[in-house]
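Limitations
The structure tokens in this dataset are predictions for the assembled complex, not deposited experimental models. Users should treat interface geometry with appropriate caution, especially where small molecules or nucleic acid strands are included. An illustrative entry is reproduced here so readers can see what is and is not provided.
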Amino acid sequence: MSQPHLELHENPPEQPRRGFMTHFFAAGIGLLVGVVPSFAGLAFFLDPIMRKKKEGSGDGFLKMPVSLDALEINGEPQLVKVIMDKVDAWNKFLNQPVGAVYLRRTAKDKVVAFNSRCPHLGCAVDYKPLENHYFCPCHTSTFDDDGKMQNEIPPRDLDTLKVQIRNKTEIWLKFQNFRATTPEKIPVG
Amino acid sequence: MNALINWLDDRTGLKKLMHEALYENIPGGARWRYVWGSTLMFTFTIQVITGLFLWTAYSPSTTTAWESVYYIQNHMQAGWLVRGLHHFSASAMTVLLALHLMQVVIDGAYKAPREINFWLGLILMQIVLGLSLTGYLLPWDQKGYYATQVSTEIMGATPVVGPQLQQLAQGGPQYGHHTLTRFFAMHAGVLPGALIAFIVLHIAVFRRHGITVPDPDRAPATTFWPDQVLKDGIACLAVLGTVLILTIWHHGAELAAPADPSEAYSAARPEWYFLFLFQFLRFEWVEHQGLAFGAIYLPGALMAILAAMPIIGRWKVGHAFNVVFLFVMMVGIIGLTGLALKNDAADPDFQAAVKQAQDDSVRIEELAERPEGIPLEGAVSLLRADPKAQGPRLFARNCAPCHRYNGHDGTGREVVKIVKQKDGTKARIKENATATDLGNFGSPEWIKSVITDFKGTFAELKNVPDKNDKNAVAESSKHFLEGEMANWSSSHAQHWRVKANEQALTDLVAFLHSQGQRRGAPGISDESPKRGRQIFETSKLPVGEFESNCLDCHSLQPIGEDKLLGEIGTGPTLTSYGGERWLREFLDNPGHEKFYGSNNAMPAFGERLTDKELDLLVRWLAGDFE
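Predicted assembly:
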């Protein structure tokens, strides 16, 4: 060691009592001053999971841009974009596409809707008309016309959404996304 | 536990490292005067912690910077706290930096062999000041925008490379997206990185030479841990306490209205620790030497003397010179800062500007909290399209040369002129209005006052001098003050003194008020306006009647009806009187035959203002805003 002024001491002899208090307070205060900004920052960072969900107005059903008459009974499913207002932090975007759903008419007055997000890991599924099934290009999840899983890759069937037929031909739908990877259907957001 | 520590120690030398860090020898015992360096390290740590968290929510662009800071401040959990800690710790850091420098100079800690460490400290000081300067712009509010403009203009005054330097800092010839991305990269990347590198060097060299002890025999030697750590900790706690109190007191840091290059900001000031330089640059003799002298050469020279202190200190009286120099510099800085604050406190224009800035920041919050949220083009567009924010400004520029608004120019400033007094000094005296005060224009009080005290309502018109005879009143004013309506008002005053006619006056006022359809006005089919219309059309009062009918001079097309009552004639039309439509048409051309005709002396603002400006002004005057 060539440092001219620095001498390394072992703990210098002191009265043990005073020594303990000094150690205690030095460590305690040191900890305290560090904790305050860290905790404030952490509380800030946790904002997204502490944020209370704002109650939307109405029953949450949206009118789809296709009418019932445009869908053939047991025909090919139609991919329809879901348009709604989207709040993103300080901005509010009006009439934005926020997702897509497959609509399939199964009877005269019955429409089944699937969220196009794959329940496996959230990719968008394609409908393959030649094979009559939904196919996920990411990890090859496959679902039949009724949304039932056809292989063991997805954890559950395609997510169905609540549909209502109003005024005879209007299709109204409650759009929701669900958590991927789980066997149960758990809404997000 | 012990086994784990030993395992780690075998592989890293941890124990020795900790020992070296904690058991530095302190001859003469732990002392309060050694705490400044540690408090600086502590405030820097706060800045790193809070800064990284703020980074997770900040969005540097001209349409999102203010908006994201607004969101941090008003909508995110503990956002105001984190932002406030960051802001006030920056101020604390500057104060602690000055104290650290003073302690080092007074104790002679800059002398050999510690010269290099002193210079490293001066470099650290420049980096910290750079951090303050770049951070001030990031919220992209009026305050930061205009203060930083001054800094980059100063940069542009650098000899030879100034303009290039300025463009590089701004990311272009003007401020824009890239000004923010560049300032942010400097503030959150380059400067903190450099600061950490220089702190490592600073502490390494400090440890090499040890602490500078003025009197080693004062007390028995001790070690950094725990004695000095305790004192440092208490000092840090005091700093944190101060910063927390300031943060809570102000509920975080101030956020002015969003930056608007088209909107002058007369309340612009740099952050308080640069006020001395600001004040210095305001002296005319400094300005005569050129901007580079006051803003670059002179501060540069002071820094050069600071840097030369280790060399000056070798002379016999060198140390004394250094201490006195630093003392004089500090007194100068404090004095200039105090002078800047004093001047501002005594400047009514500045105070009005501050008030307006505060009003704007309150207003933008109201606008941003509306359900529509903040539009994509940024919050500044909300303020630009807001009658409440723009009306007073338009009034001050266009109307206040003649009119007043509750005695001021609309924005809260007194209308004054500067006159030279006999002793040569200049004095501000109140400029007399030459047209009526419009503070309550169109309100029931206003309408009532026009009916019952016409001359009093328009009394300011007598301040317009005649073109040829300064002591006489202008002809155009006489048309009002001695005209038919003035005569009607005074000759009918007797009616209003009759108790039984009180309600009739209220009804007549309510009728005219309802026709303007302003916010808060009674509905046109309410009972009182209906009764008022009877009086307006028939002249019949409960006791007595008007000698001449309103409709003898005025015309009025009631809202929702096709038929015009009366004819366009001598007096101005009362269709929608005081409402937006009336005001708009009147401002467009007050000399139109349906208004003042040939008696008019007011400029036509249809030619002077754009449609959008007229709309904002009219909506403000008519009170059409939330």
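Some entries come with short summary sentences. For this one: The helical segments of chain A are 16-45, 47-50.
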